[in-house]
Amino acid sequence: MDTIKELLVNGTRHSIDVGPERSLLGVLRDELELTGTKYGCGEGQCGACTVLVDGQAARSCLVKVGSAVGKAITTIEGLEKDGQLHPLQAAFLEAGAMQCGYCTAGMIMAGVALLGKNPEPGERDVARALEGNLCRCGTYPRIVTAVCAAARSRARSTHG
Amino acid sequence: MAETREPDSGPEVERYELFARPGYRFDVGRRDFCKILGGGIVVTVALDPALALQESGGARRGSGDAMPRELGAWLHVAADGAVTIYTGKAEMGQNIRTSLAQVVAEELRVPLSAITMIMADTAQTPFDMGTFGSRTTPYMAPQLRRAAAAARELLIGLAAEKWGVDRASVEAAEGRVSHPPTRRLLGFGELTRGQKLVKTIGESEPTIPPVRWTIAGQSVAKVNGRQIVTGKHKYTSDLTRPGMLHGKVLRPPSFGAALLSMDAQEAEAIPGATVVHDGDFVGVAAPSEPTASRALDAIHAEWKAGVQPSGGAIFEYLKKNPMEGQAFDARSRHVVGSVEEGLADAGTKLEATYTVAYIAHVPLEPRAAVAEWGEGGLTVWTGTQRPFGVQAELAEAFRLALDKVRVIVPDTGSGYGGKHTGEAAIEAARLAKAAGRPVKLVWTREEEFTWAYFRPAGVVDVRSGARADGTLLAWEFHNYNSGPSAMDTPYEVPHQKIEFHPARSPLRQGSYRALAATANHFARETHMDELAHALGLDALEFRLRNLKEPRLRAVLLAAAERFGWGKGRAVAGRGFGLACGVEKGGYIAACAEVSVPSPRGQARIERVVAAFECGAILNPDNLKNQVEGALIMGIGGALFEAVEFEAGEVLNARLSRYRVPRFSDVPLVETVLLDRKDLPSAGAGETPIVGLAPAVGNALFSATGVRLRSLPLAPRGSPG
Questions:
Q1: Is A9 an 8 Å CB contact of chain B?
Q2: Which fold has domain A87-159?
Q3: Could you report the per-residue pLDDT of B677-710, keeping only the tens digit for each?
């Protein structure tokens, strides 16, 4: 089978040379050195590896890189623009929504995907959308607070 | 002396340390900070005669247990005023990188942003036993406060000398010394020009009392939070080294299985793969993870299974298999009066047995290590709670002098007591040695579930008696295997017999957040609830009647008030419960409200109110975060977490089979923090977890009338 030669990540075309069966997570971390996306379970149960594929939250440990060719992949490294944090990154800092921080990238990416679909989610919407993401430190209430706060701040900047 | 040294680890910690490999070796004189920081110029020397005494030994493990008293070991001010702090503690989410920086900023009078914390690096930081036992706040924070206060006083003295003024007229603030009468001002760095600060840290350095804190005691945000939310922070598993290979280790199919034969020809034929077979160890290293996996799969091994007990018989097994030769000590046994005498006078008597299952820590970052051999020896980056312990394990394993082994701990993806050991470090180092290249090894989730270690399972037998008015008379308490932490009752009981019975655990077991305090609180606080019920007394009233400890009463009353204890009425399917306790200097009380829609319906925790007091609070928002996190983590062990095993195999070694708390499990959580600025600060990462399980169990009884005496309470979701 032909190897995969190119991947579009965070708006940049990256040259690679990997088999199509390789996990997107492995390619991001080991080939592109985008290590913000984490391994947590390898079976799509923890969400630490969450990235956006064409705007949709995806478990990169289960996505074969061959299926991601030509699609726009966004990782945690792609959210900050010109030194400006994404509103959800800023909201996580504001809410102190982390302890060890290992789940944070996946939580933020899942949250960004939710805000893309539902710009003004309620607390229950957030909890439901992020149910597949684990925070073993138990910062769940703060993560809900952060996502709701980011939605409000975006609404303000859009309408205001 | 007591304040400059962490207390001996005590039987409790030692029992929980895993001596899977030959013991520890504490080397006394290896920390020479002059060498590390370069030739500093002696600014001033205040020799302390106590230092010489201390250095000559006397501590249980030699002076390796003592914290160094030379200021330069802890603190350095660079010429540009940047402050570097050195501590052997590791950051794993407790947020001590921030809280320790706060106390230094406070004492030294520098902005928080001027401080860089060098943590958990055996080549740079003072020896440290490990980051466990909630010790950072009660021991390391005061040590760094004293160091920073000593530095501040030294800088003031230097300025006074330089300016020829009275030192009482010199002030230190914002990283500068000043002499207001003459309007002279110098940055700390300008004053010292980066020279090493030489001074012995005294016992009674003039630290700033908590009532006057302006940086400590505040809700400062995580100092490296931006690194976390941008994905830039490098955990061990994110590190790379030039020429680095990826490692994989061949695991036996079950605990205790022995390798009979092995054929690695096919694996060795894979380009770039190195296969290592050394004693029990079989592993591979290869240029990429997929290649390493392929090589591992290509090894054909034959195993002989050992005889292993299964989960179903575990509690009987633990009672029937005492640990031989384990001497009982004061911490393992506590007898006052005569339980038989007390029971003879008791109108109400109860007897019950409580059990807790083995559970897994499930740190979201599994064990990982990057090992590199060089001319100077071995360097390993790994996420461990005991960098110096792992350094010793590595030195032992590879027969190296300690100073040839450097262990560096990047801020780690959590531990919860589960990362005391250096398995991944040793494995990566073995592979790197064979391959002649650096090797990264990241355990899979299944490996982390199976080959790390578990919170001990345990059995607790309780026998008690009380007078009709609710006065406790007799209390007998036997803990089998899970541990003696918080085994003593905080209640006033004239006749007590409390014993810990170590057992031969069939599964590898070790520390877990709060150790056995969770099991012992579950048994005690459930039993107290049963007694209250038998006596026809309110659970709160019954506890208060037998409780004198003012700090525990304070949290109990605070939690009950915020919760509205006694105001709501339990109806079928909805109930309330409470529990309280003290451990590691922290006082916790928790009230829970649960719902169980039908006898076999899904149990749900609706609301939890916890009151916590741990002396003077270093960082209120972080403390709140820790308390909330402990309560939420505690939901798993309380309701559904359990390691299932049979014939030496873990049956649920995956997140799809081992349930941990998720968003939908989270109740409304309210915390009440009592800030006692008049009392020394105690740690808070562990103790808040101990009240949750009994409060929930008691609430489930109030909702259903069914008394549950085993953790987890509702393994299949339902308490019925």
A1: no
A2: DNA polymerase; domain 1 (1.10.150)
A3: 999 999 999 999 999 999 999 999 999 999 999 9
